[in-house]
Design goal:
With 84 residues, the protein is α+β, with helices and mostly antiparallel strands. 33% of the residues lie in helices and 21% in strands. β2 (16-20) and β3 form a beta hairpin.
């Protein structure tokens, strides 16, 4: 299992994305919103079966109504931060 930060301004305090087995997922909560009951946006199994990172990026962009390039950048920065 891998977990990466979703480093997009306004979403970077508690939001993550990653790979669990062969499937990608995202757990997204806007900054300043209590996520005690779980993420505000869940993209992944069992509702969404995403086997490619590009599918996840498109799903996040659609769910948050954001341009795909912003989502790609937020995911890339989170992945890079995990690598150090």
């Amino acid at each position: 299992m891998s977990i990466y930060a979703f480093l997009l301004d306004g979403w970077d305090d508690a939001s993550t994305w990653g790979l669990d087995g062969d499937l990608y997922y995202a757990q997204l909560t806007p900054n300043g919103v209590d996520d005690v009951d779980g993420p505000q946006v869940w993209i992944g199994p069992p509702t969404y079966i995403l086997g490619r990172m590009t599918e996840l990026a498109h799903g996040i962009a659609a769910a948050l109504d954001l341009p795909l390039d912003l989502v790609d950048d937020a995911m890339a920065r989170g992945s890079a931060a995990a690598r150090g």
